[in-house]
Design a protein that fits this description.
32% strand; Alpha-Beta Plaits; 6-stranded antiparallel β-sheet; 203 residues; alpha+beta; globular; 22% helix
Length: 203
C-alpha cells in the first residue's frame, strides 16, 4: 500500500474489515488487510498497523490521509474516487490504528494503493488479457477449471488481485486460483500467497 506507507512511517500495514462477502460477516477484531467489494463494484479497505503515540498524533494522521485522498480525487476531477471514512484506534488496543477507505471501484483502489485489483466479468477480464495462465480450482470438490471452461463463464464476475488481504465478495465464491484459500465465513484469504489470485464468483 505505497501511498499509505508514505503518509506515516509509523503505520506498518496489516489490515481488515467489518462487512462481508455475500452473507458473510467479520469479527470486529481487525487484524489483517481486508477488502470488501459490493455488488456495484465499490471497494472498502480497512488498513491497520502499529501506531506509536509517542511520536505520532492520530488527528495528524487523519488529516494526512484525507489530504492525500483529496489530492488523488483532484487529479482525476472526481471527488467520489476515494473517501476516508474513519481513522481510529483498534478496539481495546491503542497501539494499532485503523484507516477505512471507500473507493468508487476497483480501478480507483488499484491506482490509489498501487496494487493490482480487478473486479468485473470473466469476459471483461479476457478482453483485457488478465486471465493468461490462470489456474482455478472448485472450492467444493477441488476439480480444476480449465482455461476453456473459464472462458465459458463469461457473464460471471471475477476478482483478480495481488494484494495480501482477506477479501469479502458480493456473492458466493465458486473457484479460487493461486494459493489463496476459502475461509469458513466465505471470505478468501490471500495473506499467505505471492503473485496473482483469481476468485471466480457464482454470479
Amino acid at each position: 500500500m505505497e501511498r499509505f506507507v508514505k503518509l506515516a512511517a509509523a503505520v506498518i500495514l496489516s489490515a481488515a474489515m467489518l462487512s462481508g462477502c455475500g452473507q458473510a460477516t467479520v469479527t470486529e477484531d481487525i487484524t489483517k488487510n481486508t477488502l470488501t467489494i459490493d455488488g456495484r463494484g465499490r471497494v472498502t479497505a480497512y488498513l491497520t498497523g502499529e501506531f506509536d503515540k509517542a511520536y505520532y498524533d492520530l488527528s495528524e494522521l487523519a488529516s494526512m490521509t484525507r489530504e492525500e485522498a483529496d489530492g488523488f480525487n483532484a487529479e482525476r476531477g472526481d471527488a467520489s474516487c476515494v473517501t476516508v471514512e474513519k481513522v481510529e484506534f483498534a478496539q481495546e488496543d491503542e497501539s494499532r490504528v485503523i484507516v477505512e477507505y471507500v473507493f468508487d471501484g476497483s480501478e480507483s483502489c488499484r491506482e490509489f494503493l498501487g496494487e493490482e485489483l480487478f473486479y468485473g466479468t470473466v469476459s471483461e477480464a479476457l478482453e483485457q488479457g488478465r486471465l493468461e495462465g490462470a489456474e482455478l480450482k472448485n472450492v467444493d470438490d477441488g476439480s480444476v477449471l480449465s482455461a476453456d471452461m473459464l472462458a465459458e463463464q463469461g457473464k460471471k464476475h471475477i476478482i483478480i488481485t495481488d494484494m495480501s488481504a482477506v477479501i469479502y465478495c458480493p456473492s458466493k465464491v465458486s473457484c479460487v486460483g493461486g494459493e489463496a484459500f476459502l475461509n469458513q465465513d466465505g471470505s478468501v484469504d490471500t495473506t499467505r500467497t505471492e503473485g496473482r489470485v483469481y476468485i471466480l464468483l457464482k454470479k
